[in-house]
Every structure is written in structure tokens, then in C-alpha cells.
Specification:
Helices cover about 40% and strands about 20% of the residues. The strands form three sheets. It has a five-stranded parallel beta sheet, with helices on both faces. Strand 6 and strand 7 form a beta hairpin. The C terminus is likely disordered.
């Protein structure tokens, strides 16, 4: 059972998060301020930390930075009302693995929690090779072929596919694509992700209108659906 530490000073939010994660099958630990949260994170060694930014005694930025300076690699999902690019950059630079701006949906939070936990279990490494039907993708060489014939994928398309391949079966949000593939200092829109995904489907799927592998998760983003181990 994954152990999730919630560091949040607002009791209603902490209770709602705790109930949501408990119902999902997680063991939940809580702390009501940054100083206590840092102490619990060190002592309890949770599998994941949900970290609020604005807290008394020690804010989320300083807490994340302190954990990383101590050599702790526990994945951190930062929860913040601050949605500006500068705040996201600061959080990621401090050591957060992902961020979620309030207000957010419970489904999106759980999707990000699952993705972070899955990446941790896999050692955060994406596969070097992926087989999607007649298409074989080599991430190490940045090559893609359909029955031996080379396909031209752009660097962004390889990056999109690699991010999906890190957590097959799990949804990846459009915002996550923008941050990882384009970078938090860029200013594309979520429509940019849709456009690139349509291009990727046209190159990889035998029927792009009815994709077998690159599935849409309505209202969230996309996921990679694999039939089984033969697709790795």
C-alpha cells in the first residue's frame, strides 16, 4: 500500500485529500505546517509527498529544497494556488516533480499521483524501444520504422511519445506535456499538444480516426494503450 504524506495547513483541504487518497487505497500521513511536514518526511520516508506552497513555519518551496539537499528523492507533487509561470519554475527548480494549480479535480490529482508512483516503481526510466503494431520506435536512436520503412518523427513527437511510454495506461495531462516537452518558459497552448498528437497518430496509427494506441482521455489529455508485453 503506497504511503502518501499530505503537507497542507488548511484542514478542509487536507481532509478532502486524505479521504480521496484513502478511498483510492493509499495509506495517508498528514502534517499541518512545513516544519512538521519536513520532520515527518524524513522520519516516515513516504512513497509520495503532496506539498502545499503557502504554509506557516516553512513554505513548500523551502521544504522541497531542503529535502533535495538532504539527498531525499521522494517524488513531490506541489499543490499551489499560484498558477503563474514564475511560481511553477520556482517549484520545479526547488525539487518538485510535478505541480497542480488549485482548484483541481480529484480525477486529475489521482492521475498524477498514479503517474508519479508508477515512474518511481519503474525507476523513472522510459523504455528504449516500443512496438506499436507494425511500427517500431527506437528512443535511443530517435528512429521509427513501419515494417522496416523509416518514418519521420520530429523531436517534439519523440518527446511526446516518450512521456506517454513512461507510464503506459495512465493519462498524461496536456499541461504535463507542455511543461516537459515545451518547457515552462515556453508559451504554447493546450491546442498545440492536440495538433502534435494528431500528427503523431497520422504517422503511427493504421487508422488515426480510431486510434489503437494513442488514446484521448477526454478533459484531461492522452494515454498510451499497450496490448501486452509484446508491445515493449
Amino acid at each position: 500500500m503506497p504511503r502518501v504524506l499530505i503537507i497542507e495547513d488548511e484542514l478542509p483541504m487536507c481532509t478532502a485529500l486524505s479521504d480521496l487518497l484513502t478511498a483510492e487505497g493509499h495509506r495517508v500521513l498528514t502534517a499541518a505546517n512545513g516544519a512538521d511536514g519536513l520532520e515527518r518526511a524524513i522520519a516516515e520516508q513516504p512513497d509520495l509527498i503532496l506539498l502545499d506552497v503557502m504554509m506557516p513555519r516553512l513554505d513548500g518551496f523551502a521544504l522541497a529544497q531542503e529535502l533535495r539537499q538532504l539527498g531525499r528523492s521522494t517524488p513531490i507533487l506541489m499543490l499551489t494556488a499560484k498558477g503563474q509561470v514564475g511560481d511553477r519554475v520556482r517549484g520545479l527548480d526547488a525539487g518538485a516533480d510535478d505541480y497542480l494549480a488549485k482548484p483541481f479535480s480529484g480525477d486529475e490529482l489521482l492521475a498524477r499521483v498514479r503517474a508519479l508512483l508508477r515512474r518511481t516503481r519503474r525507476g523513472t526510466a522510459a523504455p528504449t524501444r516500443l512496438v506499436l503494431g507494425e511500427v517500431e520506435v527506437d528512443f535511443a536512436r530517435l528512429e521509427a520504422r513501419r515494417q522496416g520503412v523509416a518514418l519521420h518523427l520530429t523531436a517534439k513527437e519523440f518527446a511526446l511519445l516518450r512521456l506517454l511510454a513512461e507510464t503506459p495506461g495512465e493519462p498524461v495531462t496536456r499541461e504535463r506535456f507542455l511543461d516537459v516537452v515545451w518547457g515552462v518558459n515556453a508559451f504554447p497552448t493546450t491546442r498545440t499538444v492536440d495538433t502534435h498528437m494528431a500528427s503523431l497518430r497520422a504517422k503511427l496509427e493504421s487508422d488515426p480516426e480510431r486510434p489503437r494506441f494513442l488514446k484521448t482521455v477526454h478533459g484531461v489529455g492522452y494515454r498510451l494503450e499497450l496490448a501486452g508485453k509484446e508491445d515493449w
